[in-house]
Amino acid sequence: MLSLSIGFDPGLWTLESVCRRTIENKRGKVDIYIFYFAVQFLPFHVWNYEPVIVYEDEVTCLYDALHYYIGCSKKPELVISYPWRSFYEGSTEEKVELDKMPQRELADELIKIWRSRDHNPFSMDEIFLKDPWKALDDFRKGKRVRFGEEQERKIITLELPEYRNVEALYNSLSLALETNEIIRGFKWLGILAEYVLSSSIEKESLQSFLMRKCIAERIVLEVENLARIEEELRSIYSKAGEKS
């Protein structure tokens, strides 16, 4: 069962509904959640779809760690962070009881409506909805990095002075994931995003963090490359703090 907590400001919770689909086959049971929001704060746009996929028999949970990059946890205990509304592994005192939230079936008709939108349409790859086990296998092998490719959307400027350092961090980290050659050499970019955004970077080394993540194939990187990746991430994190 998915357990969810709120990070940052609970007053920013504008969840429209939790959409859920359960799939079962010989490999076990999978619960697919889409957290559907009317507004996203960073970057600001209307309509936002945050996927969480819980593999009950695989003891694995996949989720949006940042900008549709896949994050991974050994257990379905997640914090939804603000103002960008991504997830990371953990919990806070502000718990969310999913059973008390508005829920609806993640029906094909609903997905069709979401995909048809001109502005920020739903862009999660169909494989996650039809064969989530294949998607999990691809992720573990480093073949699948994101839930899908987001279509171009109009970004509206929004003044959030209390989140200025958070916005700088979001923008810098997103740019690094897309362009930094050293960072992009790591196949599981969502894991790196979670390392920074969950503030685990303040508490432990990247190597220690990776050891706790649930990926079937062992992450093998030369120590020098791993150290360089951590150095790049720490630089981004510290620069965002300087701008606050």
The computed structural class is alpha+beta
Oligomeric nature of the chains: single chain
Q: Span from first to last CA?
A: 37 Å
The secondary-structure element order is: EEEEEEEEEEHHHHHHHH
Total beta strand runs: 10
Number of domains: 2
Arrangement of strands in the largest sheet: 6-5-4-3-2-10
Short description:
Helix content is 32%, strand content 26%. It is an alpha+beta fold. It has two domains: 138 residues, no CATH class; 82 residues, no CATH class.
Features:
244 residues; alpha+beta; globular
Mind explaining what this structure looks like?
This protein has 244 residues and is an alpha+beta fold. The protein has 2 domains: 3-140, no CATH class; 161-242, no CATH class. The protein has 8 helices and 10 strands. 32% of the residues lie in helices and 26% in strands. It has a 6-stranded mixed beta sheet with strand order 6-5-4-3-2-10. A 4-stranded mixed beta sheet has the order 8-7-1-9. The protein starts with a strand and ends with a helix. The longest helix is centred in the last third of the chain and has 20 residues, at 223-242. Mean pLDDT is 80; it is low at 154-161.
Give the SSE map.
Elements: E1 3-6, E2 15-25, E3 28-40, E4 45-55, E5 60-66, E6 69-73, E7 77-80, E8 87-89, E9 95-96, E10 103-105, H1 108-115, H2 126-130, H3 132-140, H4 164-179, H5 181-184, H6 189-197, H7 206-211, H8 223-242
Parallel strand pairs: 1-7, 2-10
Antiparallel strand pairs: 1-9, 2-3, 3-4, 4-5, 5-6, 7-8
Helix pairs in contact: 4-6, 4-8
